[in-house]
Each structure stands twice: as C-alpha cells, then as structure tokens.
Write a structure and sequence with these properties.
3 helices, GH43_arabinanases, signal, mainly beta, 1,4-beta-xylanase, globular, about 40% strand, four-stranded antiparallel sheet, 20 strands, Glyco_hydro_beta-prop_sf, Tachylectin-2, Chain A
C-alpha cells in the first residue's frame, strides 16, 4: 500500500497536480497559485475575470482553464472589468476580488475614460475562491476624480483594516467638465468590509502621471512597484517612462518611500505596466510579472533580494494565453483542489 501511495504521488507530481515537498524554506500550507487576470479589450469577453492554476508550486507553468472563458462577469457599472486583484482576509476565511470598472471593447476614447470614467470599483466576495457573490459597484474616489484605475488592497495590521489604493486623475473643484490638464496619482481609502470606505486621500503624487501601484511586505518593510506613466500621452518624457519603479518604506502609508530601482524591465520588454509581485511558495525568491502592453502580455522576472532591485528576466515561462494586469495568489492544498475540480 505504501508503495502504491508513493507511485500515485509521483504520477500526480509529474502531471502538475500535486506539489512536491519543498526545501526547508518552503512556505507551509501552500500547494500552488491562482492567477486572476483579464485578457484585453480586443474581444467582447476580454474585460471580465479569468482564472488559471499553476502546475503545482511552479509559478512559471500554468493550467489553461476548461473552456477558456471568464469565471466572473460584471453586470454593473460599465459592465466590463480590468485589473482584477484578489486579497485573502487576515483570518484566511474570506477573499475579496476588486477590479477597475471599465469597458473599452469597441471604443477608442481613452481620454474620455480618464476625464469622465467611473469613480467606483467592482467588488466580489468568496469564502472558498469557487463560489462568489454577485458583483457590487462601490464608489471610492471624490467627485473631482476622472477615473479609478487598477485598485489593489493591503491589510494593515497596525490599523486593523484594509488599505485600498488606485490611480486617479484629480481636477479642480471649479472644473466640473474636467477640461484642464491633470495626471494620475495614487489615491487610497481604508475599509473593513469593502462596502464602506473612508474619505479618499492622496498617497503618492510625484508630480507626473503614475499608475498601477502594487505592494508586498517582507521583513518589516513594504515594497511598492508602480509604472512611471510618462512618455507618449503620459505627460512629459523620461528615460524610464512606461517602465516600472521599485521603492521601499517601513510604514505602509508613508509619504516618503525610498527609491530602490527604476526602469525595471527596460532591457527585456518594450514598455511595461500592471506589475504584480509575489513570493515563491518553495524558496526565498520573488517574482515580478510586468505586463508588456501591446505585446505578449505578462513577462516574468525574478530576484532573491528585494532590496537589490536586481530583477532578472525568466525565459521559457508557460503563462496561460495572454494574461493582462492581474494577481497571483498563493493557495492551500484544499483551495487548489477545489479550484482544480471546478
């Protein structure tokens, strides 16, 4: 019987359905990763939420979902969603998925989307990552905002609440038509239930357009990655425009993050946005996926030292189709098996 169990485990590992035992530095309890993303505005269903599962604990090999269609659809707001982000509650018993309320399929008016776009985010809830609530539209930005793009969240134990942040163009109160020049900056609000939010405030405004911030915590520090949105159409130009910047701070909502490295991805891709970052389940390594917009979608990079800013491109990754700006979430064995069964 013992020999049969060993053989069965070996077959499951080979098939990518069971993660082999990791080294001593492996993160306990995780058996793989869930990838939530959208696929772009080129198809009617591209701006909905898609899921894929890693092959065991390999974040560079992914299983295509059965049927290949979206898992979640928005029937609120613009009826399209982009940039889905999934967060696990601190107790591990609930998940929230938030996304940009924006549908660009069949349109070519990006300026309209940042001057007179949605000021809300779309929210789903789940207890198991399989059964999700109906989507709800929740306003988070002030009336002077022209848009809410790429919302993400971090649980702040110091506050016992979630910090939700996003990019918005903010216009003067005496400019209700939003005709003056503005730029995206990172705003934030806090919440405990993703229903009621505090008054929004500015978190990160370098004086030029910046979008797509994401944050990871490690060793008592917070590392923030953002796209420097300068360049064609971004309000000025810079050698690092349309690439990713890494910063760090010891306090999540600090207004003084320190630069670690800019121009991330420049030697490997032609323009990047929508960075997502996560730690390996099996070793002391981090992955940074950068969305090469207009190209092949996400390109993976890796490092063993977040403080170094030394992100090396990874060759040969097998990502699920052409995923666009999303999230990679570590999942437990039970969660992995439920998602796989679906």
């Amino acid at each position: 019987m013992r020999g049969f169990r060993i053989l069965a485990s070996m077959l499951l590992i080979a098939a990518g359905l069971l993660a082999p035992a990791g080294p001593a530095s492996a993160r306990p309890g995780y058996a793989g990763y869930l990838f939530a993303y959208f696929t772009g505005e080129g198809t009617p269903d591209g701006e909905q939420v898609y899921f894929s599962l890693s092959r065991g604990n390999d974040p560079l090999r992914w299983r295509q979902p059965a049927g290949g269609g979206p898992v979640l659809r928005s029937d609120v707001g613009t009826k399209g969603v982009r940039d889905p982000f999934v967060i696990r509650s601190p107790r591990g018993d609930r998940f929230f998925l938030i996304a940009t309320d924006l549908r660009m399929y069949g349109r070519d008016d990006w300026e309209q989307s940042w001057r007179h776009g949605s000021r809300s985010i779309v929210v789903w809830e789940s207890a198991d990552l399989v059964r999700w609530s109906a989507p709800r539209l929740v306003p988070v930005a002030p009336e002077t905002a022209g848009n809410v793009w790429a919302p993400e969240a971090v649980y702040d134990p110091a506050r016992s609440e979630y910090v939700v942040f996003w990019a918005s163009n903010i216009y003067p109160a005496d400019d209700p038509g939003h005709v003056t020049t503005s730029h995206n900056r990172i705003m934030f609000a806090t919440t405990r239930d993703f229903r009621t939010f505090s008054e929004p405030k500015t978190w990160f405004d370098p004086g030029h357009s910046v979008i797509d911030s994401t944050v990871i915590r490690d060793g008592g520090k917070y590392y923030r990655f953002s796209q420097d949105d300068r360049g064609p159409g971004g309000g000025g130009s810079t050698p690092c425009g349309r690439y990713v910047t890494e910063e760090k701070a010891e306090v999540l909502l600090s207004r003084s993050y320190h630069l670690v490295r800019e121009c991330l991805g420049k030697d490997a891709i032609v323009g990047g946005e929508g960075p997502l970052v996560f730690r390996s389940n099996t070793e002391k390594k981090w992955y940074l996926f950068i969305d090469e917009y207009g190209g092949a979608g996400y390109r993976p990079f890796e490092t063993t030292d977040l403080d170094s800013g030394d992100w090396r491109p990874v060759a040969g990754a097998q990502l699920p189709g052409k995923p666009r700006h999303g999230t990679v979430l570590p999942v437990t064995r039970a969660e992995y098996d439920r998602l796989a069964a679906r």
